[in-house]
Input
Amino acid sequence: MDLSKRQEQIIAIVRENGPITGEKIAELLNFTRATLRPDLTVLTLSGILDARPRVGYFYVGNQTASVFGELLRKSLVRDYKSVPIVVHEQTTAYDATVTMFLEDVGTLFVVRDGGILCGVLSRKDLLKLAIGQTTLKEVPISIAMTRMPNIYTVKPETSIYDAGKLLIHAQIDSLPVVIPSEVASGQWEVVGRVTKTTITRLFVELGESKQV
Ligand code: ADP
Output
């Protein structure tokens, strides 16, 4: 919602001085109470200000935005993650390409025995290999993947909000969801994935006001 300059001024006054009467706000702005009435109505109806008889106006903020933010912070990766599509580090570039098509994903997570995360392979990593005219049926993906410890990951208890922020900050499409490995200490086991689609799906659900 776009606010006028005068509405912004009213909000600033109420934030600082509230609860405050309409007459007092008008006085501070050098307007008549009648001139301000439409602005005060808009601000009250939109939930930014609230008014109590004999008390005056006070600031309640943009509650819609804060409810939305809280929902995203309370929604956890554990409840929205999808199944990770993993390949072994010795998989050839050709087989990895086929897996991407068959599984309909844009990113593969590369693992060692025990499901230990050791790399991430994106579409462009494979394209780079193709441009280099490597023999795709022979070359292992380990030469093209991004390796640990340079991989951004999230935990099941990470919030969807933090996962989304990380996707944007790192300019990537996909995050492995990891837990500490039980078989190899200091290593991470892949248990899921969060992608831009995961975030978009939640966004659409919220837009449809479905229970989340
Ligand atoms: P694409 O390369 O198909 O556009 P991305 O933008 O996700 O897909 O990948 C860009 C680069 O970032 C690739 O080199 C990929 O290996 C790497 N990458 C992808 N996901 C991650 C991640 N979670 N952590 C670190 N690097 C990643």
